[in-house]
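A quick word before the example. In earlier lectures we treated sequence and structure as two separate objects. From today on, think of them as two lines of the same record. Here is GIPC1 protein written that way.
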Amino acid sequence: PPAQIMFCTLNTHKADMDKLLGAQIGLEDFIFAHIKGQRKEVEVLKSDDVLGLTITDNGTGCAFIKRIKEGSLMDQTKMVCVGDHIETINGKNVSDCRHYEVARMLKDLEKGQMFKLELIEPMKAFEKLEPRSKGGTLPEAKISRGRETLRLRTKGPATVEEMPTEVEEKAIKKVDELLETYMGIRDLELAATMVEAGRDKKNPDEFAVALDETLGDFAFPDEFVFDVWGAIGDAKQGRL
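And the structure line, produced from the sequence above:
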């Protein structure tokens, strides 16, 4: 059932967070669905303001851990792993929350206090599988491969569209990095939407208005919006 799918990867059966299904799919890509496995509980003392987690989601109520910063508080908590779905925080079910809401809740936890996470790890049924032949490889998942791509949107149907230009691809990658720096999330679809919003804008004020109209729920800080505008400009000027 779709509700059991935690996330999907392109061209690999492994829970590789660098191969996550994003907003674009090459027409020759293979998609692997990773489903819910074992549940686990962990209690952590928040001894640092920063937990060291990067959160993303699958767009349908499943926020999961995309990255754990090496040497961070959560890196020392070995039960918490990349790919884990965060189901509850201190008993509050967050399965219907977007990744930025979950990241905000974790950030707002009081320093010096214990907190409890209930997690669901992806099923590891395919960990021991190897490619049938090492002589051939699957095509790499790149949004620049080919002339057309299948574009997935949170709202509305999927559409076949022209690939993002090389400039837009670089801007999307940089904006995705800025999302992690400012908000502790990674989301290529969101980054692509932000780059699209700035495509025909002449200044940061116009860009800020466009973001507010399309992505107002995120309440992006002004400094972040300015840096995103700068990244789009850098890509257009060939500085990325």
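Notice the following. The longest helix spans residues 166-183. We will return to this example when we discuss secondary structure assignment.
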